[in-house]
Each structure stands twice: as structure tokens, then as C-alpha cells.
User: What shape does this take?
Amino acid sequence: MKTLIKNGTLVNPRGKSGEWDVLLEDGVVKALLPRGSEAEAGEVVDARGLHVMPGFIDMHVHLREPGFEYKEDIASGTLAAAHGGFTAVACMPNTSPVNDNKVVTRYILDRAKEAGHARVYPIAAVTKGLLGEEMTPMGGLLAAGAVAFSDDGRPVESAQRMRLALEYAKNFGALIISHCEDLSMAGEGAMNEGEVSAILGIKGISRAAEEVMLARELILAEALDCRVHIAHISTALGVELLRQAKARGVKATGETCPHYFSATDEWCKGYDANAKMNPPLRTARDVEAIKQGLADGTLDCIVTDHAPHAAWEKESGFLTAPNGIIGLETAYSLGITNLVEPGVLTYGQLVEHMSCRPAEVLGVPGGVIEEGAAADITLADPKASVVYTQANNHSKSANSPFFGKRLKGRVVRTILGGKMTAQNL
Amino acid sequence: MQFQHKNLLGLQGLTKEEITGILDVAETMLPVVESKDKRLPLLQGKTVVTLFYENSTRTRTSFELAAKYLGATVSNIVASTSSVQKGESLKDTGKTLDQMGTDAIVIRHPMSGAAHKLAEYVNASVLNAGDGLNEHPTQALLDMLAMRTRFGRIEGLKVAIVGDVLHSRVARSNLWGLTTMGASVTFAGPTTLLPEAFQKYGATVTNDVREAVTGADVVMALRIQRERQKAGLIPSVGEYARFFGINEEVLKLAKPGCVVMHPGPMNRNVEIDNATADASHSLVERQVHCGVAVRMAVLSLLVGGNSK
Assistant: This one.
């Protein structure tokens, strides 16, 4: 069957942009046609006023299955992804059991295929059981379908273990994603250490807890001449360290999350556990630096770190509540609201960070609408203004500090392999 | 006096008039505490539950006696003997107490923000008797009552608060209370125990105890817990006492007529010298006395007859 997406504006930084109609056939892009071209198609999508973009790719989500299905499962998480404009997600291995073996990797892929809402790329653990000790069988995991390695949620504490993992990963050209956190410094901290933690009486986490390990990873990547990807960068110095490393030619890449350019530790006032995450929300100065890092390309990717938790877990109190927030269905809107509208990024740059660069960093297809490419396409209205409510939420969990906020930009339709996976009316 | 709040979660956000109003009522309670017949039936027919997730003898007893002097029915829940140990959440515990007809819940909890969370879930008035490192409002109120009965005022007093400020909910409540009342507050202690950010909120912060004490009307020592040594925040309690302890030598720098306070329990010869703790200028015992009056005042304002 053929589908014609017409009258839209292509925002497609790695291909043709502007007034093009897109003809899809058999799950792939058949042709880009000048707007108004007559083409036969069984289905016509009128994209007047909409941006037509390569499907978003989120290289950092927690789908919680297997093991924590009360928070989220692969079907619900990927449905939320589709509604947020994502056609692919890479899921972290801190499930139960941990994705440190090919049985779990294959299980995730099978469940994702059954659900059919998005492409799912499993990220396997760097160390068995996420314990920071024995390395996982990286070659076998890659063969089973893993796309990268991370102990996300925890750092690989030992510098020597990390050094060996980075070195071993080179055998396969595999990517290691580092969750940077010096646990001895983070201690019992529950939010950013600073003026707000001082008056809330909450133990703070020094920004240095993130930065010292971030610096370690960059030094290791430089010394070993290997790749490393820094997860969820939240601080100004973190951005600057990555910027300097890239300037020296270190093969490092980095990501940040919408909450790090949309919210600060002020949001913890009132002890709302939906403002609790790891790394913690920082300060206005950090938000500015994150925006600058996205604008100049120091930060490669915007990822959601979608981390569903049940209401009762978040309600238990600020100190005992688990870290993290859901984010798949607010990412695009927060990008438009806080990056494009204030002039930090162009529409094209936002697509770079949400689709093109994640595809490159992970080494997966996508990130461009061109003839022959898979028909993974996101349609959005960048001018729409909507209040984010539970009605827009397709995750099993509802732990977000953005409920009730008026946001600019709305994903309208998501197409995966030529088939519509979500429509927001 | 009308107190327009359902709960007392902290002194942050209260106005000078509101704090003055509480202290005025508390002052009228002092004679009740001192009389032979300790009965003022403002809370007759009301139920007060103390819900303590942390050990505390003096604060719990002070609240219990305050409620009883006012004629309330009082029930004490200690976490070690309650459903808390069975993993019941704060929310469920609060709702259960609500259904039993509780008018006020006095809560102490090791987690900052616990009282605020409980208040979101229950209809009863919530009185914060200490939440983690955050606030201990009745302690700061009793400190202020002790100061006011001694000096006749709070405004313009120079107050030095010395010790483990970082981990002290007493320090935070006094920061809000004393600055709102117009006192000049200086916090002092070693860098590892002193949040510099307090400067942003109207206080002075220094690592030099002598500087803090110089010209002070009130010197308050805060408890140094021995765990701080184990966590590496101070090398030893001995070194702490030598450089940051309050003793008669340091107090020579204070204003004549200066008083010494401590929220208790004291570590003698650590944050406060043995002789200083018992000296005539020590207000430590007076503080405990004022504590009952302040808690009577707060309970009567929050759950007494005409407030609801």
C-alpha cells in the first residue's frame, strides 16, 4: 500500500528539507516529491501546518520489563514512545533479571516485536548483575541484538574495571555508555547540593560527584583511544569538560535530558518527589550551560531517561522515593518550549538531537527521510499549545513534574515502517 | 488571637505577627505550667496523637504533657511498636489515625518533608516535632520565648548559633524564626558542618566562633553527634571542642549579660563546656520549661475550640 504525506514541511537536516511531499510504499520511503505533485496513494495524510521529521530515537529509556511490570512494560513503554513521536528507543539493562545475558536480550526483542509500537534496541550491562566487577560477554550480547553497553543507574566504580571494559569493547567497536556518579561523594544525598538543599534540610549531592567521574571517563577514552558516551549530563562543568575533550579529538559523545534544560532544584521545594532524579536537577546556571552545549553541538543527543515509578513509590517521601521521571511524551514539547521558542536551537537542530545524532551514536538506521530509508516518520505541530495532563499519558506510571504545565509543540502522528503507531488528536 | 493555619510545619513563611501571636499565647501558658493545678481545659474532647519515628524523650514528653494540661486525650505511637515496622506507609498510617477521630498529629520523622507529606494526606492538624534536617518549629519557638522572657524582646538581639548547623533542624527553624523577628543571627562552625547558603536567607555565616560570639546577647550551642567524626566531617570531637566549643573563655567576648542556650541533649565538654552548661547565664533549663508552654500555645491555637 502507498501512503502520501502531503502539504507538510520537511524538517530533515540530513536530507531534503522544506516543501516536499513524502510517498511511502511497503514500509520504506519511495520518493520525495515537490509539494503539489500528483501521486497515486491509497492513503493520504494531510500534513498542512505540520513538521514532517525523521522518527525520533531515544537512546536512553527504562522499559522496566522484565521484572518491574507494575511500573511499565515493553508494550506500554513503547506505546508512550510512539505517542511522544519516537520510532525507536534503546532500553537500559537494569531490569530483573538484569540484561547481562542473551536470554534477556532476546526476550526484550521478542516482546518489542509483539507490541510493535517502536523499534527497541536493548542496551546490555557492562558488568554482570550491574555489580561493577565481572565483564559481560559483549560479543555474544551484540550477536543477540544488543546495541551498546551500560550499567546505567550505577557507575562502574573501579577505574580499572572501566578501563578494561572500554578496552575490550574495542574488539567489537562497541559503545559504552557511562552513568557518571562517584557513589562515595553522592552518599545519602537526594538532590543538588546548594542553596535550595540547605534550606530544605535535604542532604545534597555535590555536582562534583558527577563531574569527577565524567572527567575520569574522558581521560580513559583519550588514553585508550576508544569511544565513550556520557549519559545524562546535568552540570555546566560537565558540558565544558566534554567540549574540551572533543576539541582534543577524544572520541566522546554526550547526552542530556529535557528536565536538565527545563527545570532546576527550585522544583524540589515542597518535597515533590517527582522532582527527584539522578543526577539531580541543578541550577539556572547549569540549565543555561546545557542549552549552550546543545546549541554548539557539544551535547549530541537529547534523551528522556524515561524512568517510570508507581505512585506509591514516589509518595513514600522525598528521601525514600526512587529516582527518575517519565519523559517520552513531553520530550518534543519541552524541546520546542525551552529550546526552539527561546531561540536556542532551530527546528532542524532539535531534530539533529532527537533523531540524527542518536542514530549515529548508536549506529542504528534512521535519522533521515530519504528514498529507500525505512518509513519512520514523526509529524508534529510546532505551534500547538497544550496542557500536559494524564489524558496525554500512555505510560503505566505518572511520575512527571510537568503535569499541568502548558507546553508548546505537539506530536500529531507517528509512523513506523509505514504504519501509524500513534495519533494525538 | 486568630491563627490562620491548619498545621505548624515550620517557621519558614510565618509572619512576624503570627510568631509574636504564638509567643504571646505561650507567655500566658507559663503560669499554668508553674501552678499547682495544671488544668486549662482548652482541648477538652480533643484527641492528640504523638507519632514518633525517632527516639525522643524530651520533645515527646513535652508535647504529651502540654496536651494533657489542656485536657486533651493523648495517645503516643512509637515507631518501634507500631505498624510502621510492618512497612505501613506514612500515608496509610495518617489516614488510619484520621479515621480514629484524631484532631492533631504531632509527628517526628527522620525524613525531611515527612510532616509536609503527612499534612497532604490527613484532615487532622499536623504539628511538626522535627522532620529530618529540615525544621523543628516548636524548638525555635521555645528558644524565642526563653529569649523574650529574659530580654523583653527579640528584635535587635545578636544571636550566635554554633555547631553542626548543616545537620540541624533547630538551626533551620531558628534561621527563619529569628530573622523574621528581627534578630541578627550568625551561624558558626567548621566548613564541613556549615551551609554557606544560609547567607542568602538573611544570616551571617562564619567559621570563626570568636567572631560569631563577639558582642552576642545569646550564644546557642548545637549538638555534635559522634557519627560526624566517623563520616569524616570532623577529625575528632576533641579537636572540635578545642576550636569550636563554647566555654567561659570564648564567652568573655560576648556582651555582658549574655545567655547560653542548647536544645539538648548536651554533649558536655564537646560543643559546650561542663562549667558553662551549669553556669548562671545558662538558659538550658529555662528552655525546657518554655517548651511546654509553647506547645500548649500551638496546640490550643491549632485545635482549640474557636480555631475550627
Notes: Chain A touches chain B through 17 residues (CB under 8 Å). The radius of gyration of chain A is 20 Å. The mean pLDDT of chain A is 97.
